[in-house]
Specification:
Helix content: 55-70%
Structural class: alpha/beta
Radius of gyration: 26 Å
Shape: globular
Strand order of the largest sheet: 5-4-3-6-8-7
Length: about 550
């Protein structure tokens, strides 16, 4: 039974439940959330929608689409965690809907609902959907391109190819050419593989022309406007250094071994990774069997291409971050959903029962390891509290996985077993988001110290940070420009973001400095230095009074 609209609605609802509750809880996390949030805020601060800025300086690292949307939400809801994270949450909700719709249209409603529940409740999907970063929007753009082009190759209708090019264009405005590259890396191998087995139709010349023209019409205007404002160097820096340079070189010390994404994928696809080995075996057997099924086999080929090719591509990249691999989660969800569907139809439950049993065993081992580590190392009360929250969240999945295994035992209830594990994962994420994350504010001293600065500052006051992390957060929760002072032993070169402490301190009538409480150097260059506030290991000082000596 094919009811794609129902699958899309359920998928959107599941994704909304796992992303929206508690979205505004807590301040933004340093470093990426505060950096991207500040770039979006400075669109409103400088009234400039063409040149992105960070801490008052032109910023040519990412394209603007996420920042435009976040700035619009900030204008609507006020600047804060909710507005900055809402684009990711909405993209994740849309991803749940489109995944449910696409799979249900091809395979059936139950498989479509399985796929969207699995995707929405996997750990990395839930995390990315709750952060003020652009990856959720990128992942959505890639998924839309792949699903539209898949549909176009099946039907031969040009409009689906055009829709795919539009989605790829939006992805390029979100995070650069990687959106188009990854979508093509998935769909091109699928085309050659699938065309060897069954009819697979390329678009007509009109589909190619209209698709590419629309892609150019969407992506080029901002690049042209940026070039007109700042020169071609800005585009070269964005596309050359910060896009292709990420693949061929290491950016910001974000390196990793070739196998970097193996543990990332295991953890990111938790708890559904337990069913991945059985799903792979099912997929291989199904594709090797004689007599191709026009509904199942193409989706299996698409799933394998979606899983394998991007994984290899990103494994060869010199710059590595966990969230890069999130765009292949839909492929994993497709494969596991089709496996679940086959088990329900065939009644062969042994492999699924074994896989379901793996989850509570793994959770139990992790819980014991966390308890033993905290107990043996006599960690502080705040760390113990955090570990208790993690154990409680794990307990929700532990109980849910046990119930899932019990549901698998009976053939009459096996079809609802995946929903039980999905609900358990949903409960675990919500418990962490609503209960645990607010407690994490004690580990983020800069937002509190920034609030003290905002209450005390007057016109002309300067703000600086020295020797501690959190410069982006200090900017976001105060206002640009925030100075970064070089520590005493540092050598400042032309173009460095760090500035000589004497120049900044002596050049301001009053200056607030966030630094470490244990900082040995109390540089004030003869001016009055007053401790204003402390939080954790950080302290806030106010320097004023007569000018510098010497």
């Amino acid at each position: 039974m094919h009811k794609p609209a129902r699958a899309a609605l359920i998928g959107a609802a599941f994704a909304a439940l796992i992303t929206l509750p508690g979205l505004a809880n807590g301040t933004l996390w340093d470093n990426s959330e505060t950096a991207y949030g500040e770039v979006a805020r400075e669109i409103l601060f400088f009234h400039d929608w063409i040149v992105m800025h960070l801490n008052g300086a032109a910023w040519f690292i990412q394209p603007p689409l996420y920042f435009w949307i976040a700035a619009a939400f900030a204008k609507l809801f006020s600047v804060g965690s909710f507005a900055m994270r809402l684009p990711s949450a909405l993209a994740t909700i849309a991803m749940g809907a489109i995944t449910g719709y696409a799979v249900a249209r091809q395979v059936g409603s139950r498989a479509g609902i399985y796929a969207t529940v699995i995707l929405s409740t996997s750990l990395m999907q839930a995390i990315v959907g709750r952060l003020a970063i652009m990856d959720a929007m990128l992942d959505l753009a890639v998924a839309l391109s792949v699903f539209w082009w898949f549909r176009g190759l099946q039907t031969g209708r040009d409009r689906y190819f055009v829709f795919g090019w539009i989605a790829a264009a939006l992805g390029c405005l979100t995070k650069g050419p990687v959106a188009l590259v990854v979508a093509l890396l998935i769909i091109v191998p699928f085309y050659f593989w699938n065309s060897r087995v069954e009819s697979t139709r390329l678009p007509s010349w009109r589909g190619w022309v209209f698709g590419i023209l629309l892609f150019a019409a969407i992506t080029l205007p901002w690049f042209v406007a940026l070039t007109a404002r700042t020169g071609v160097g800005a585009v070269i820096e964005l596309l050359g250094h910060y896009t292709f340079g990420r693949y061929t070189g290491t950016i910001e010390n974000q390196a990793g071994p070739f196998w970097y994404y193996v543990p990332v994928l295991i953890l990111g696809f938790f708890p559904w990774i337990a069913f991945f080995p059985a799903s792979v075996m099912y997929g291989i057997r199904r594709l090797k069997a004689s007599g191709a099924d026009a509904t199942i086999e193409p989706v299996l080929r698409l799933a394998f291409c979606w899983i394998v090719v991007p994984f290899i591509f990103f494994s060869f990249a010199k710059t590595k971050l966990p969230n890069y691999i999130a765009l292949e989660l839909p492929g994993l969800a497709l494969l596991v959903a089709l496996y679940f569907e086959s088990v329900v139809l065939s009644g062969r439950r042994r492999s699924m029962l074994i896989s379901a049993a793996v989850v509570p065993v793994t959770i139990g081992m992790l819980a014991f390891a966390i308890w033993a580590f905290v107990h043996d190392n006599r960690l502080a009360a705040d760390a113990s509290s955090a570990s208790r929250d993690l154990i409680a969240a794990g307990a929700a999945i532990f109980i849910g996985s046990l119930l899932t295994a019990l549901l698998v035992v009976r053939r009459s209830t096996i079809s609802v077993a995946p929903y039980m594990l999905g609900l358990a994962s949903l409960s675990s994420v919500l418990a962490l988001a609503i209960i645990s994350l607010p407690r994490a504010e004690q580990f983020k001293p800069v937002p509190y110290l920034a609030s003290v600065i905002q209450r005390m500052r007057v016109s002309g006051d300067a703000v600086a940070i020295e020797g501690v992390s959190g410069g982006n957060a200090l900017t976001f929760y105060t206002q640009p420009t925030v100075h970064t002072l070089a520590v005493p032993s540092a050598v400042v070169h032309p173009g460095d973001t760090q500035q000589p402490a004497r120049d900044v301190i002596c050049g301001a009538a009053r200056i607030f400095i966030v630094t470490s409480r244990q900082h040995a150097d109390q540089r004030s260059f003869g001016r009055r230095r007053e401790l204003i506030a402390t939080r954790g290991h950080d302290a806030l000082y106010l320097i004023d009074g007569p000018g510098c000596k010497g």
